[in-house]
């Protein structure tokens, strides 16, 4: 990159790739030469990719020609070309200034659109690349990467992490939360397009010299026992996945799990959202056979690493609770007035002091960074999540604050509320983020056409239908 394409320290590189080894290689290459990688999940649309490229001014795009998601072929290069054309249209330029290097999968070679003035094959570049690349010396506060998150706010925000603090926090939390030992084989099923894949598939494990499984595919293809066959094949000892995947596999019963030994497993982890107790118990009893501790981890793209988490075999577990803060993390629960609540309480989850992995800013918009995370309760980092602390001091994440009913209102209406309106729908907006789905549904309920970023939707056509069939409600 730096030798042939003049990429230098501080440049932004967009990476739009499936879960193949070259993705990790590209990340580490950026880190070595001091360039910032901005990874875009390979399931995102051309609009979503374009928006992220333009926001941080990427000079290079690394992508692939195509990949399979289950049995579906995704023509990634075609989507990337569409995104770059949108970038040109937005910038009103004739030359995009972007280069694309592609690596092709082996199962099938689809016809790949090609522009010789701009496109370069990965393997051709590598054939003439030097085996020596001196690292760019960086300060601990130099920028390492940008990762975009949109969630409940609409427009994607470029979360920026730095070299020293982020690496230290990812490495330390990985070591202790998973009780990493040199003989372990670790598997995090997350896509590297999300923060979990950055912290606990790439940087945290590699900083500890860990052996990891890198998985491309879906948990139900070619059959619903895929995860457990991989666990057995590679003798996985530490396994980290999402409650969504656990609930999906629960639907297929115990038999696909019990067909496989899973004797190598020692620690199970969950990430991405609060896990409901039913799924936790199935994970513990069926997958882990009641011998593997579960680390139910709460953290965010913005935090860089685990904030609330059990330590395996050291923290008594409660199904559905993220338990206690990680080392150096000081949580508090506030009421609407910003007063700290002691003992058993429910309210806003905040953190009282910084930690090494905290984001340093939102790329190109420090004012929004201050407003979003620090303005509501000055002196605290505001997570945006609700939280309950029980009589034993355990923390339970209750969900995004903007998705919650006020506690006093909930007490008044009781456990079952009668809706004022019911709207029937053929389907709901589908995306990997529940926060985005809820934000869109709130907008539709208010008849607010300003939906924010919807480029990650798998079925954007359903939006028009939902507006057209919307109930007439009192405004």
List the helices and strands and how they pair.
Blueprint: H1 2-5, E1 12-16, H2 21-33, E2 36-39, H3 46-56, E3 60-64, E4 67-69, E5 72-74, H4 76-91, E6 100-103, E7 119-121, H5 122-127, E8 143-149, E9 157-162, H6 163-177, E10 185-188, H7 195-207, E11 211-213, H8 226-234, E12 238-241, H9 243-250, H10 255-258, E13 267-270, H11 277-287, E14 294-296, E15 331-334, E16 345-351, E17 361-362, H12 366-374, E18 381-389, E19 395-400, H13 407-413, H14 434-445, H15 461-468
Parallel strand pairs: 1-2, 1-3, 2-8, 3-6, 6-7, 10-11, 10-12, 12-13, 13-14
Antiparallel strand pairs: 4-5, 8-9, 9-17, 15-16, 16-18, 18-19
Helix pairs in contact: 3-4, 6-7, 9-11
3D structure, described in words:
Belongs to the ATP-dependent AMP-binding enzyme family. It comes from Limosa lapponica baueri. With 475 residues, the chain is an alpha/beta fold. The chain has 3 domains: 136 residues, Rossmann fold (3-Layer(aba) Sandwich); 258 residues, 3-Layer(aba) Sandwich (Rossmann fold), CATH 3.40.50; 35 residues, no CATH class. Helix content is 31%, strand content 18%. The chain has 15 helices and 19 strands. The strands form 4 sheets. Strands 7-6-3-1-2-8-9-17 form an 8-stranded mixed beta sheet, sandwiched between helices. Helix 9 crosses helix 11. The protein is globular, with a radius of gyration of 23 Å. The N and C termini lie far apart (55 Å).
């Amino acid at each position: 990159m730096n030798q042939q394409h003049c990429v230098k320290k501080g440049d932004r590189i967009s990476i739009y790739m499936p879960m193949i080894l070259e993705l990790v290689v590209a990340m580490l290459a950026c880190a070595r030469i001091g360039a910032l990688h901005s990874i875009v999940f390979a399931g995102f649309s051309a609009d979503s990719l374009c928006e992220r490229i333009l926001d941080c001014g990427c000079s290079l795009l690394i992508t692939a020609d195509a990949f399979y998601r289950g049995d579906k072929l995704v023509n990634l290069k075609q989507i990337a070309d569409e995104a770059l054309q949108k970038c040109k249209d937005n910038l009103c330029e004739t030359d995009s200034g972007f280069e694309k290097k592609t690596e092709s999968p082996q199962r099938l070679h689809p016809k790949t659109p090609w522009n010789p003035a701009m496109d370069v094959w990965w393997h051709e570049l590598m054939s003439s690349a030097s085996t020596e690349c001196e690292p760019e010396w960086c300060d601990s506060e130099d920028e390492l990467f940008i990762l975009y998150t949109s969630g409940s706010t609409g427009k994607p925000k470029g979360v920026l992490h730095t070299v020293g603090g982020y690496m230290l926090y990812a490495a330390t939390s990985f070591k202790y939360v998973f009780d990493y030992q040199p003989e372990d084989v670790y598997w995090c099923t997350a896509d590297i397009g999300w923060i979990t894949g950055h912290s606990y598939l790439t940087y945290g494990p590699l900083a500890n010299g860990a052996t990891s499984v890198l998985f491309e595919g879906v948990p139900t293809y070619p059959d619903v026992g895929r995860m457990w066959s991989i666990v057995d094949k590679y003798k996985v000892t530490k396994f980290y996945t999402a409650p969504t995947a656990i609930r999906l596999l629960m639907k297929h019963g115990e038999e696909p799990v019990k067909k496989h030994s899973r004797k190598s497993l020692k620690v199970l982890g969950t990430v991405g959202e609060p896990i409901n107790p039913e799924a936790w118990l199935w994970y513990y009893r069926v997958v882990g056979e009641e011998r593997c501790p579960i680390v139910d981890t709460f953290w965010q793209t913005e935090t860089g690493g685990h904030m609330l988490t059990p330590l395996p075999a050291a923290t008594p577990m409660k199904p559905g609770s993220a338990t206690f803060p990680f080392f150096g993390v000081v949580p508090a629960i506030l009421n609407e007035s910003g007063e700290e609540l002691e003992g058993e309480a429910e309210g806003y989850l905040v953190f009282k002091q910084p930690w090494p992995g905290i984001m340093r800013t939102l790329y190109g918009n420090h004012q929004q960074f201050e407003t979003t995370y620090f303005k509501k309760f000055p002196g605290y980092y505001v997570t945006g999540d609700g939280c309950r602390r029980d009589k034993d001091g355990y923390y339970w994440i209750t969900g995004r604050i903007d998705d919650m009913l006020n506690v006093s209102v909930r007490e008044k209406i009781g456990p079952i509320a009668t809706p004022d309106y019911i709207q029937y729908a053929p389907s709901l907006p589908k995306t990997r983020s529940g926060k985005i789905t809820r934000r869109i549904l709130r907008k539709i309920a208010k008849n607010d056409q300003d939906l924010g970023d919807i480029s990650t939707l798998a079925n954007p056509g359903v939006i028009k239908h939902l507006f057209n069939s919307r109930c007439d409600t009192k405004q």
